[in-house]
Amino acid sequence: MYRPIHELTDAYRRGDLTPTAVAEAYLARIDALDGRVGAYLTVVRDQALAAARESELRWRAGAPLGPLDGAPVALKDVLCTRGVRTTCGSKMLESFVPPYDATVVERLRAAGAVILGKTNMDEFAMGSSTEHSAFHPTRNPWDLARVPGGSSGGSAAAVAGGLAAGGLGSDTGGSIRQPAAFCGVVGMKPTYGRVSRYGLIALASSLDQIGPFAQDVRDAALLLGAVAGHDRRDATSIQAPVPDYAADLSKGVAGLTLGLPDEYFIDGMDPDVERAVRAAIEVLKELGARLERVSLPTTKHSLAAYYLILPAEASSNLARYDGVKFGLRVPGRDLVEMESRTRAAGFGAEVKRRIMLGTYALSAGYYDAYYGKAQSVRTLVRREFAAAFARVDLIVAPTTPNVAFKHGEKEDPLSMYLNDVFTIPGNLAGIPGISVPCGFSVTGLPIGLQVLGRPLDEPRVLRAAYAYEQATPWRSRRPELK
Amino acid sequence: MKPGPYEVVIGLEVHAQLLTRSKMFCGCPTRFGAPPNSQTCPVCQGMPGVLPVVNRRAVEFGIRTALSFHCRVNAVCRFARKHYYYPDMPKNYQISQYEEPLAEDGFLEIDVDGAPRTIGIQRLHLEEDVGKLLHEGTMETAKASLVDFNRSGVPLMETVSRPELRSPEEAAAYLRAFRAVVVYLGVCDGNMEEGSLRCDANVSLRPRGAAELGTKVEIKNLNSFRNVERALKFEVARQTAALAVDERIVQETRLWDADREVTRAMRSKEYAHDYRYFPEPDLVPLQIDRRWVEEIRAELPELPRARRERFVSQYGLSLTTADILTHHGPLADYFEATVTDFSDAKAVSNWILSEFLRVAVGDERAIFQAVPSHNLAGLLRLIADGTITGKIAKDVFQQMVDSGEDAPTIVARGGLTQVADEAVLGGVVDSVMAANPKAIEDFKRGKTAAKKALVGQVMKATGGKANPALVDRLLEDKLSKIQT
């Protein structure tokens, strides 16, 4: 079950496997194991099998749609799927069935991918553990007592646990990279604007970006290539042509300069994480990369800025859930009561907390001190990265300061927020970043190495991750789910 | 209005629905009157995950208007979200513009009692319209309300004047001039009844000579020219009365109640205090290309006032005549087209202002079609060369309107050519005089009005075709002979 997509499609080509058999095997495994993992919110068995049969006909006719034809994938339930309920992990949208596909879903379908279902997430993508789903928590396939990370924990756990060959998530402050690190898979957040956000239920519009979860870097490149590119329905999507991300993977890191930011190796981080990441950097050095220290001093203000910008935008984006048009409606004697009751019942505690924070931050008289100031910090973060990238090609750092924690361990919101301290700056700057497995803690939990690059420099980010991955054995280790 | 102790200060915010084919941020049609919610999509219904895309045509219309108001078109402008909860607004925020509008700092010239005044325009920006609520009965008693999102997302252009209007009459004049410009530009149909042009007003009073502005009151729901003037008059009177007894004016939003003809304070729940504006993150800042602006400027039509001045100088018309002709672009076009075929501009303007507008009664378009300008020129030529009388011409014109035929055809078929043969008319005059001895007696006794009656009889006998001047001379001759 643990074969990456490019191996599956090689097998389809040779006729050793068929998309239908593979889809059936995944669906059977979901039936058998997902009760314990809780990766999925909705499984679309019939649709998946129908798509697999069509793919099989294409392979048999020698005319597949591309390198993803017949690939069984999982979609975070933040992505709208036509005719399939899309909950965003919230009671508010428990019965919401979009009449449209997100652009990325359209593109995956056009590439022949077989969508298995919709995966669990923290409600409205607010969280780092997938414990804040309104439906059920997701468990980490490496240790079911632990969280898979979040907010895209469902997709990460599905790929890690062999419940999908690949998947998509969304990353607003680390929601792809952090669960990828916790679950020992590859997860990538592309440059802001590289992938269309049309049909991605918005958390924070200026930070959200869709990206792939994969078993290896090659698959991540293939998935990204299928969904990236300009979309006239998203005014923030970038016009630049999409390179063939898989083409230059094996060019290696020789001659590349990697920056090591002082601020990403901090007191209090898990010593296992620091050890693994430093060892990974040594591997890259041995592969021919040059290393250079860089400084990103505004990193320490990133979290604070992020937790003003994100709630502000979220409070606005979530204003539409009022019971009037779609989703949950709790009746009331009049309009105001209906809206209040609907929002009181439909949103969980974390969502309410952030709506309140954001509403406050945007209020007259506070705007300049909070939202305005946070935007200034954001500009500084972006400038610092630009200055660093004038000297180095890539930046390497840990994805998270620690490994997967136990369910219920982080009840204080602030300690939860600190999980994203190394991933948030990338979102503020809008730059691409990947998390690739780089070893295990003494307790046997996965650790992630983060590679950040210049805007639109996904090819080099992928190349470095691939070089490291190919030089190390980590991807052959899989959780034992029974 | 005689000057009281207070100076009236009024500023207007005018919302104009733009005549684009599709909505501001999606491709849905903007047609008025379609079945509820038939012109909607996930974007204008505010569904989760969908995104706005700016309508280029709406931006072009905004620039066109801004240039006509002599505004500075900003090189970069931004959209912003304006938040308040209301069920006709699907996202519970409106995409508008706030700190960086499309255009700023212009002016509009108006006429007040024949004197020109220049009213500053502070800003012009683009935004999206909201939907419409339908209540069974009144909003307070309705068991349920329905929302129609057809209008949701229709492009709106908001233009904010400076507080430089000094009376309700000036405010109405401003609104009329504003409407004339946007209709001329083809960016708005100017229909206040259907809501394509809407107006809110800010009103305050201050002691004459004071530099500081008084406390302002915003008045909403001014949906006709008449209501604008009436509501402002009421509000000025209300504030004047309040100040007279040392009452403090409260800064508030008031609604014009056209039935009871009063403004009433809206409950504070009915409007938001804090819109929590912030830059719309789903749209990138709009870079306005200078060359594009210049292209739009080069294609601007002549505006009503410029055209009016030209009509006075080029055609020798009075200001009043030129004003009426130029108020409505197509009418001015029609006038000028007619003049190219028949150069007596005064005769053309007289005809258009009297007969044409009398017959048109609001539906000028139908007459432009039935009587093309060269046909009107043809009719005027028949009058000028004496072929038909002015009286006959009026009937001929009505027939032209009804049938679409040209004047010579109608005149020839009806045998309507003027009778100017002295021998023929002399005979008619003789027989009319013979048949009306009483009128002649009256005339002899000094009743000059009796001659008019005889003229009428002659005209009647000739079916209106007699040359009136000739009839008059013949009667004069013959009557004077009788008298002596």
Kindly report the average pLDDT value of chain B.
91
CA-based shape of chain A: globular
CATH topology of the domain at 5-249 and 465-476 in chain A: Amidase signature (AS) enzymes
Low-confidence stretches of chain A: none
CATH-level-2 architecture of the domain at 5-249 and 465-476 in chain A = Alpha-Beta Complex
Percentage of residues in helical conformation of chain A: 25-40%
For the record, the CATH class of the domain at 5-249 and 465-476 in chain A is: Alpha Beta
Total DSSP E strands of chain B: 16
Distance from first to last alpha carbon of chain B = 61 Å
Number of domains of chain B: 3
Order of helices and strands of chain A: HHEHEHEHEHEEHEHEHHHHEHHEEH
Largest sheet of chain A: 11 strands, mixed
- Work out the largest interface and the residue count of each chain: A-B, 43 and 31 residues
Number of helical stretches of at least 4 residues of chain A: 15
Total strands of chain A: the figure is 11
Q: Rg of chain B from C-alpha positions?
A: 30 Å
Note the beta-strand portion of chain A.
5-15%
Instruction: Give me the side-by-side strand order of the main sheet of chain A.
Output: 1-3-2-4-6-5-10-11-9-7-8
Task: Identify the overall geometry of chain B.
Answer: elongated
| Residue-averaged pLDDT of chain A | 96
Topology:
The complex is a heterodimer of chains A (482) and B (484).
Chain A (H helix, E strand, L loop, with lengths): L4 H10 L4 H19 L2 E4 L1 H16 L11 E5 L26 H8 L3 E6 L33 H8 L5 E6 L5 H7 L2 E4 L19 E6 L2 H11 L29 E5 L9 H16 L3 E5 L4 H19 L17 H12 L2 H13 L6 H22 L4 E5 L14 H5 L6 H6 L3 E8 L5 E8 L4 H14 L11
Parallel strand pairs in A: 2-3, 2-4, 7-8, 7-9
Antiparallel strand pairs in A: 1-3, 4-6, 5-6, 5-10, 9-11, 10-11
Helix pairs in contact in A: 2-3, 5-6, 7-15, 9-11, 9-12
Chain B lengths: L5 E12 L38 H13 L3 E2 L2 E2 L2 E4 L9 E4 L6 E10 L2 E14 L3 E4 L9 E4 L6 E7 L6 H18 L11 E11 L9 E6 L2 H20 L8 E5 L4 E4 L12 E2 L6 E2 L2 H9 L5 H12 L3 H9 L1 H13 L3 H16 L3 H7 L2 H12 L5 H14 L3 H8 L7 H14 L1 H8 L4 H13 L6 H16 L1
Parallel strand pairs in B: 12-13
Antiparallel strand pairs in B: 1-10, 1-11, 2-6, 3-16, 4-5, 4-15, 6-7, 7-10, 8-9, 11-12, 13-14
Helix pairs in contact in B: 2-3, 5-6, 7-10, 10-11, 13-15, 13-16, 14-15, 15-16
